[in-house]
Amino acid sequence: MCKTKHQRLKQLTIAMGNAVIPKSKQAEVTSYLVEYTCWPPPIFITLISILEVTMYFYYSVDTTDGIQADRPPPTHSPFALNPNSKAEVWRYFTYVLTHNGYMHLIPNIVMQLILGISLELVHKGARIAAIYFLGAFTGALLFFCFDPKVFLVGASGGVYALITAHLADVFLNWSEMPFRWVRIVLFSVWVIADFGFALYSRYAVEEKSKVAVMGHLGGAIAGLFLGIIVLRNLEKKKCETIVWWISLAIFVTFVMGCIIYIIAT
């Protein structure tokens, strides 16, 4: 029984790993995953998801609002990003731990578990954590550049960075990526629905419940470049090295430009 369960887990692990890489690289990754012992497990995505759910319930109990589909953000939280916290740099990363309702929390958790675990099996936790938090950081920068009037909470910056990082890999390996159109359609439907709800939360709800959408945009922009910069290149080509340096230069220039603008204003 245990051996059968282990084999099924191994097959699932291989399927999840191969789901996020092009066909030409699957043999190498499959060879690695066959020897994978599930230790260490995909700890980053698992841990950050547990933390986000825990923080949501903590602030639900800590306030009179309770568990609601959409509620005011936890404005008293030392983790949430607010218009007056420009100098509190830790909030640029920790706001991903706070959410303003379970309709905000659940889509983020589901997407980061589905996509994040597959990516972490292949690329390891450190790379996925870097993309996740740099996506959140970029979202925080855009928040202070363009919409520092409400609160910024939620894991969308990190989640969107994972999505666009994977899509960047899909486009770079378009001819070899299995189910490429299915990926594009499914991710597009999810993003349209999620971003639509975010726009509603920003502009259509009562003032105290408004939440900025810059985390989504910042994460999406960051992921496009970080997917090239950070994810493992299983078969490096000369042209890809050039693309890597161009992506790094654009991303660093973009981030530095945002920082300079924030300091200047």
UniProtKB/TrEMBL annotation:
The Peptidase S54 rhomboid domain extends over 87-232
Q: What is this protein called?
A: Rhomboid protease
What GO CC annotations are associated with the protein?
membrane
Record PANTHER family = PROTEIN RHOMBOID-RELATED (PTHR45840:SF2), RHOMBOID-RELATED PROTEIN (PTHR45840)
Q: According to the lineage, what is the superkingdom?
A: Eukaryota
Cell inner membrane in keyword set: no
| Annotated transmembrane regions | 43-61, 101-119, 126-144, 150-172, 184-205, 211-231, 243-264
Give the main localization category.
membrane
Listed A to Z, the keywords are:
Membrane, Transmembrane, Transmembrane helix
> Has the keyword Membrane been applied to this entry?
yes
InterPro entries named among the record's database cross-references: Peptidase_S54_rhomboid_dom, Peptidase_S54_rhomboid_met, Rhomboid-like_sf, Rhomboid_IM_Serine_Proteases
UniProt family annotation:
Belongs to the peptidase S54 family.
List GO molecular-function terms, semicolon-separated. Answer: serine-type endopeptidase activity
